[in-house]
C-alpha cells in the first residue's frame, strides 16, 4: 500500500541578508532534512519547541513556502515538480487550519463569505456552493443563522470551528493543523479536540497535527515525530514516544510537562534542561542537541547521529546513546 | 489585561456599521458632512439658485454691492457674483474629487503590487514615490501647466499624480502586514492568486485608511486648484473658479471698497477645505478607534 | 489565624466600553497568608488578572474599582497616596508579568533595569552598589555569565532569560508578596520547567507569599498551596491544592479537570464543558455557570449561589456542592 503522504529529505533554508545590497550573509536552516510518512485516516503529530521547524514543515506541505530541497509525494505525485495547473487541483486535497482564532479569520467577511471563499477561489461555488457552506457549518456544529454574522461576534472556540469549516470546504484528504487548540481555553479546547477526532472518523481524514502541547498530542495522535532545530530526533507510534522514549530530548520534554495532580509533586523526578535552544542560523556541529544534553560525549560533537533504531526498541531515535528510561515524568 | 472580554461585541454588527456609529459621535465631522452636502447641492442647482447667467456681462450694473437682484453684488463687468460663485463650486469640487480619485487609484494599484510582489518591484515603486514626494509639487505643476498650456484636465492629472505616493505607502503598509496574516495564508492555501488577494483582502482592508487619505487629498486639491487658478494657470476665464475669482479681486481698491468680490470666494474656499478636513479627521477616528483622542 | 498579609474584601471592577458596562470582577474576597502560594485559576475573561492588578491599582483609567477593603500588612491600599503606592510596588510587593518583552524597557540594558529596581527603593541611592546587586541577582536567577550579560539589552535575551530578569527585579527588594501573572505562559515547556523551578527556589529563599495567576492547571498543581477558581468575574471555589484536585466541589472546577488531556491518565474521549464562556457585558442571570452546568436546575437560573464555607479552608459557590462530594 502506498502512503497518502511521503516526505523525503525536506529542507527549507531562509537566507539572512544584510546591508544596502541585501547581500546574503548566512541562512536559517528552519527545516533541515525531514522525512515523514502518513496514511489515510491517520494522525501524525509534529512536536517540539518554538523554532524547531514544525510550523515551517506544515507550511511547506501546503506549499505556502517553496522547499529548498526535498520531495513531497502526495498520492504518489511529487508536489514540487507538478505544473501550476496540476498543483492547483492537487492542493485542494491538502488544507491547513491555523492557531490564532483571531488572526485566521478576516474581520471584514461574514462567516458565509469566509467558508465560501475556497469554493469561489476554485470556481466551485456556482454549483451548489450555498448549500455546501450550510452543510459545512452544520458539520462543525454551527447553526445556519451564524452564517450572516462577522467573525468578531464569536468566541475563540467557535472561531476555530469556522476555520475548520473553511479548511474542509474543498473536501481535503489531508489537513495540516497548526496548533489548532493552543490559543483556546481548556474547557473549549476539549470540544475542538473531540470534534477533530469525530471528523477524522467520519471523513477518513489524515491529520498532520503540529503542537507544542504534549498532553494534547498524546491524546490525539497515532504517530509522533519529535523535532529539534529543524530535524526529527525521534519518531514512532504514540506508545513508542510516550512510554519508551529513547532520545534524551524526548525524555526531557515529557518530564517538563506540569502534571495536573499535586499528589507526589515533591517526589517527582524531573529532568530540567540547561540553557536555551541554539540559533538555527548557527546550529551546533554533530548532534544538534548536544549543547543541552547531559549524556553528551566526544562523538556527539563530531558525528550527527542518524535516525535509526540502534537498540531494537522498534522505533528510530537520533541519539548515539539511546536508552529506555526506568520511569517517565509523572507516570 | 484580558482583552477578550472587553472586545466582546453584541451581535449582528458589521465593521462598517461600527465605524459609522463612531463617526456620528464626532459633531464637527457630522456638521461638515451636512455643509459639504449643501455645497454640492448648491453647485448642482447653480442655475435655478442664482437666477443669473454667470457669464452675462451687464456693464450698466458693474461693481454694485449686494442687493435684492444680485445677492452678492456684481463684478467689474457686471456679472453676478453669486452665480459665478456657485458655478465655480462645480469646478472646485470636481477638480478636488477627480484628482483625489486619480491619486487613490494609482496609489492603491502601485501600493498593493509593491507589497504583494516585494523584491525589486517594491523597491522601484517606492523609489518612484520618493521622487514624487521630494519634488516641490507646486513648482512642477506650474512648469507642466506652462508647457502643456493651462487647462482643467492637465491640472487634475498633475495634482492627482503628486498625491498618489501618500496613498501608495499606506496601501503597501496594509499589504505587507496582511501578507503574513493567517487568513490571507489560508486563502493562499486554497489556491488564491495575487489578483484574488488584492480584490478580496487587500483593498477591503485598505479602504478605511485610504478613505481618510482621499478626503484629505480632496481638501488639498481644492486649495491647490484655487492657488493655480489664482496664478492664472488653472481654470481659464470666462469660466469661473474660486481661485480666479480671487485673481480678479487683487487690487487694493477692490479689497478696500468692494469686499463682496473677494470675501465670498475666499470664505467658500476656506470653509470647504476646513469642512473636508473635519470629515477626514472624523473618518480617521471612526475607522481606527485607537487613534481617537 | 494570623493577620493575613493581603486582604481583599468585596472587590468589584467594571469597565465602561462602547458595548455597555463590562463587569470584569464582581464581589471578590481573598486573603493571602504570609509565605503561602495562592493560585488564581480561570480562563480568559474570568477576571483573574483584573483582580490581581487592582491590588496595586495598576488597572487602566477606564476601570471603576470598588472594594470594602484592600489591605496589605494592614495598610489600606485603596486610599494610599500615589507616592507611597510606588514605594510598595517593586518593594515589598514584586511583580512578574506574562510577556517580559513588553514589561522590559527595550532601550535600557537589563542591568540598568534591575539596578533601577534596586535604586528606587534605597534610602541612600548608591549606583555602584545597585549595579553590583543587579549582577548578583541575575546570577541568582540563573542568568549565565551575569557580569557580561547585565550590559545587554532585552532583545539580546531569549524569552526564558527575560523572564529570569523579570524575576530578578521582582525579588530585588526582598518582597513579602510576589504577584506573578501567567509567568510561564509565553515560554516553551523545557523553559517553563526551568522558570517554575526558579519560582519555587525564589519563593523558598525569600519566603515571600505568592499570588500565581494562571490558566494552566498543571502549573497550579506543581506550585500552589491554595487555589482560588474564578469564573465570569466571581470566585466559584477555593480550597487547598490537594483537596481541590482530589474532590472538586464546584461543577466548573470538575469540568475543567475532566476536559484536560492528561499525560498520566488514558482517556478515550475528553469530557469538555459544553458551550462558551459568557459575554461579560450581559452575563446570565442567577448562577453565571448555569448555561454550561450539568447540575443546573430552576433554582440556578434565578438565584445567585453565594460563596459559602463548606469545610475547613474550603468554600464553593454552588447550590448543589453536596452532590459533588458524593459523586467524586
Written description of the protein model:
The complex is a heterotrimer of chains A (331), B (293) and C (328). Chain A is α/β, with parallel strands linked by helices and 331 residues long. Chain A folds into two domains: 5-221, P-loop containing nucleotide triphosphate hydrolases (Rossmann fold, 3-Layer(aba) Sandwich); 244-331, no CATH class. Chain A has ten helices and ten strands. In chain A, the strands form two sheets. Chain A has a six-stranded mixed β-sheet with strand order 6-7-8-3-9-10, sandwiched between helices. In chain A, strands 2-1-4-5 form a four-stranded antiparallel β-sheet. In chain A, helix 3 (111-121) packs across helix 4 and helix 3 packs parallel to helix 5. The longest helix of chain A is centred in the middle third of the chain and has 18 residues, at 186-203. Chain A is globular, with a radius of gyration of 21 Å. Chain B has 293 residues and is mostly helical. Chain B has one domain: MetI-like fold. Helix content of chain B is 74%, strand content 0%. Chain B has 13 helices and no strands. Chain B has helices at residues 3-7, 15-23, 27-44, 46-50, 81-117, 119-134, 137-148, 152-179, 182-189, 194-230, 242-248, 252-257, 260-287. Chain B is elongated. Chain C has helices at 48-55, 82-88, 100-103, 110-119, 127-140, 146-149, 159-170, 189-206, 217-223, 241-246, 251-258, 298-302, 321-327; strands spanning 6-17, 20-32, 37-41, 63-66, 69-72, 75-76, 93-96, 177-181, 209-214, 226-231, 234-240, 308-311, 314-316. In chain C, the strands form two sheets. In chain C, strands 7-8-9-3-10-11-13-12 form an eight-stranded mixed β-sheet, with helices on both faces. In chain C, strands 1, 2, 4, 5 and 6 form a five-stranded antiparallel β-sheet that branches. The mean pLDDT of chain C is 90. Classes of the chains: A alpha/beta (331), B mainly alpha (293), C alpha/beta (328). The interface between A and C is large, with 46 and 47 residues.
